[in-house]
Amino acid sequence: MLESASNGLKIVIVGGFGVGKTTMVQSVSEIRPLSTEETMTQAGVGIDDASFVRHKTTTTVAFDFGRISLDEQMVLYLFGAPGQERFWFLWDRLFSGTLGAVVLVDTNRLSDSWYALDRLEHHGTPFIVARNNFTEPQHTLEEVREALDLSPEVPMIECDARKRDSSKAVLVALARHLYSLSTNGAAGETTA
């Protein structure tokens, strides 16, 4: 673990309730992640729709935090946003200073992705979409793209957030997308 890093890059992982944001941060972080997971109680009954995640006993109430060292001076900070609607007020603050985002989707509940997409577009935050395959996917990546009305420029990838290599591949895809956007923007500036 680096103690002398001078540059930090911030990535946010967003998506619906129980889609795998905490799991992704835990699987890929080089440090023991900071987690604000709390036991789900009767207070959430009728507020949080847990019908698709019946096995879930805890939930994020603020954010998850992890870290990956990229080199001696640069680290990647990962923030997993809470998924329930009652905690969405935290998202705008989490987006502050964010380089880019991963939107995790579950094909059983694609509509849970709309808020994340709306907020990222509102903030002008570049993002990719990752279909998390905790269970057998109900839709192909192209069907997901069409259902979410995503432009062809938004990269899509499939993953299993429980697996470190798969989560790393998602972050690499986001890094490639951000690099592409920065080089295309720079090329556009020089030709204008």
TrEMBL record:
<comment type="similarity">
    <text>Belongs to the GPN-loop GTPase family.</text>
</comment>
<keyword id="KW-0342">GTP-binding</keyword>
<dbReference type="InterPro" id="IPR027417">
    <property type="entry name" value="P-loop_NTPase"/>
</dbReference>
<protein>
    <submittedName>
        <fullName>ATP/GTP-binding protein</fullName>
    </submittedName>
</protein>
<keyword id="KW-0547">Nucleotide-binding</keyword>
<keyword id="KW-0378">Hydrolase</keyword>
<dbReference type="InterPro" id="IPR052705">
    <property type="entry name" value="Gliding_Motility_GTPase"/>
</dbReference>
<dbReference type="Pfam" id="PF03029">
    <property type="entry name" value="ATP_bind_1"/>
</dbReference>
<dbReference type="InterPro" id="IPR004130">
    <property type="entry name" value="Gpn"/>
</dbReference>
